[in-house]
Amino acid sequence: MWPASETGIVFVAIAPFVAAILAPFLFRIAGRFTGWLLALVPAAIFLFLLGFAETVIGGGTIAMSMNWIPAYDINLSFFIDGLSLVFALTISGIGALIILYSGAYLAGHKHQGRFLGFMLAFMGAMLGLVLADSLLALFLFWELTSVTSFLLIGFDHARQAARRGAIQALVITNIGGMCLLAGAILVQQLSGSWEMSALRGMGDLLRDHALYGLVLFCFLGAAFTKSAQFPLHFWLPNAMEAPTPVSAFLHSATMVQAGVYLLARMSPVLGGTEAWTSILVIFGGLTLIWGALGALKQTDLKQILAQTTIASLGLLVLLIGLGSTYSIAAAIVYFVAHAFYKAGLFMVAGAVDHETGTREITGLGGLAEKMPATFIAAAMAALSMVGLPLTIGYFAKEEMYLGLMNGDWTSLVVIVVLIAGNAMLAGVALIVAIRPFLGTLVPTPRTPHEAPLAMLAGPVLVGAAGLVAGVLPDWLGHDVLVPAASAILQRPVESHLTLALDVTGLLLWLSVLTWALGVLVYRQADTIRTLLRRFDAWLGWTADNVFDACMFGLIRFSGAVTRALHHGKLELYLVLVFLTLAVALFGPMLAWGGLDWMVPKADLGDWSQRLVLPALQPYEWGVIVMAIAGLLAVLAAPTRLIAILSMGVQGTALALIFLLFGAPDLAFTQLMVEVLSVVILTFLMTRLRLDDRDPRPFEDWARDGTLAIVCGVGVSLLLMLVLNGTLDTRLSDLFTATSVPIAHGHNIVNVILVDYRGFDTLGEISVVMGAGMAILALLRRQRKKATEKPAPRRRTRKAGA
């Protein structure tokens, strides 16, 4: 550990992404040692962040900001307090162990470097998310977690299940991302600030506002999708198609905890209302029970643990919703406990699968003899998950119950839900720790043996950390609980964690009841699984089926829309374009009274006084006559070539108009465009040898002629109305005033095209380039046909020859 500085937060945000870029190249050099080397990056981040611990424990905060989009007063800001530091240390510490674990788990895989790069980017996105102070930066990292998780879940892209799981996770979490963006913009508009640290004192402003319900909906939508709350939980079990290191990291300290972090961070701003408490407690409780029951239905170790993650996330949301000092303290301690035991158990499941070839608990048993270190790691993690004394899980459970000892009926309902959920989770912990390892050794697809050191280091260390934290309650309370809970509650919090047991108090007996029910669940697990599966068969559908139906309907609808709009008929495309132009021209004029001049009114005078045609010189009339002659020539042209040349007459007339009215640069541009257009089109037509003229039925002629007249009249009317109105010179004055000092150009027209309308000009150039490429393709195709010689005919002998 070394002294940390505010500017070093940039290192924390950038280092994982730099390492992610270098990971594939490092893999080519270091080979099987790549995991060990890359694990140094999160380890260094962990040690660096520890340098802030003294400041944060003392009640201080660390802030760092830099200009991001100065024109809109948007900064890229980071903020470290007790809450963000606990999350960041958990992410980087467990991340170091999982990167090390990944190197051994995927040893020999040809894409190991790419996988480690995705993992590091995933970790960097989550670190940026919990350290960000700006809501926009939070949204940016929030979406990066979705993208990187998509890459990790679909890493084995050859399997359809992996692709489906990745797409499902991306779709659901991106819906939440859009909710987060909408909520962030609403909060900024209501409060005037993007920084969450500045919002802490504006809770009353937001809670009392008429749009509070909409803001709450947006943030809850973001949190519920990311943290897999019922009924949006179904994507998380399907994410188990990812390699086990991804599951261990995603479920313990990263993506799914992002929603929990968001709720905790926004609790001082949006919390404390009846809507907040009711929604979080109800949906959190439902998710807790649903996930625990879902875990009891499974026999695959990863699926069992995935379902318990859903339950644990529901438990965390419920605790945050309660909002009391005890419940927030319980949420902080339970987050750390869950990160330790869930990372350890997932790595144990991966080790079992890696060394035996199966994850089915019905096909496992007696592995403790062959994999003793793995069994010890599983046992330590399971003890914390059960919540036995001398583990960190015990203090989390005690804090949950302690905050609900006030005796009112709502607290009784909540405590019943918590006891039921914790009991089922305890039963699942016993299943995971006992069924695969104890009893008679069961034959497996591979001969079981102990996992390599890199795969054992992670589960053993996090399991031991759960025990160490459990025997050091003073450290746990003072250095972890107090800073994080104080950051959420915005007031000083005191720790009361102690190893002393009150054997006469109700609190201990609630824990004993939880453990007893957990043992009962373990003993009746097979019966419970059978009943739950029968219920699923009777129900006949799941949220997963609903998602598939919605996606299928969306694809069908998109296909129908595409076939209707992109039918491939250029003629109809042009009709639709000009029809839209006509509506765009006449619609606003009719809606806003732009055509009132056509109706004479006594108070407005004759229309001719309001729409005055300019006085033209004879030579100017000559140019107009020239344009009309070109138009008539186009209409009467017997061939396409003559029509193209006649269009050049109109373009030349337009160039002359620009020249006569003081715009020589535009005249020159128009003239060059016309010359090039005529030359290129003429060259194209002669080379393609197209028909002289297409036959046009009367209905097509009438339709196109009517559209042309309507659009021409509309453009003319609009221009005349604009020219007879009051000229607003603010934009031209801006160009004149800023052309030299800002754009450093004396030619205002050039400055407008290159600087002020740079993207517009780029788009025009892109269109011309695209048209040129299409023309070149047509010419090459025609040349290829011309050079191809017909195959010689084979001579056949006549019969009897």
From TrEMBL:
NADH:quinone oxidoreductase/Mrp antiporter transmembrane domain residues: 132-417
A molecular function GO annotation: antiporter activity
Coiled-coil residue spans: none
Key words of the record: Antiport, Cell membrane, Ion transport, Membrane, Transmembrane, Transmembrane helix, Transport
Membrane-crossing segments per the record: 6-27, 36-58, 78-101, 113-131, 167-189, 209-225, 276-296, 303-322, 328-352, 373-397, 409-432, 453-472, 506-525, 572-595, 615-634, 641-661, 667-686, 707-727, 761-779
Domain MrpA C-terminal/MbhE: 702-790
GO cellular component: plasma membrane
Protein name: Cation:proton antiporter
Classification via Gene3D superfamilies: NADH-ubiquinone/plastoquinone oxidoreductase chain 6, subunit NuoJ
GO biological process, one term: monoatomic ion transport
Membrane association type: Multi-pass membrane protein
MrpA C-terminal/MbhD domain sequence ranges: 625-689
Key word Membrane present: yes
Residue ranges annotated for the NADH-Ubiquinone oxidoreductase (complex I) chain 5 N-terminal domain, each copy included: 68-115
Species lineage: Bacteria, Pseudomonadati, Pseudomonadota, Alphaproteobacteria, Hyphomicrobiales
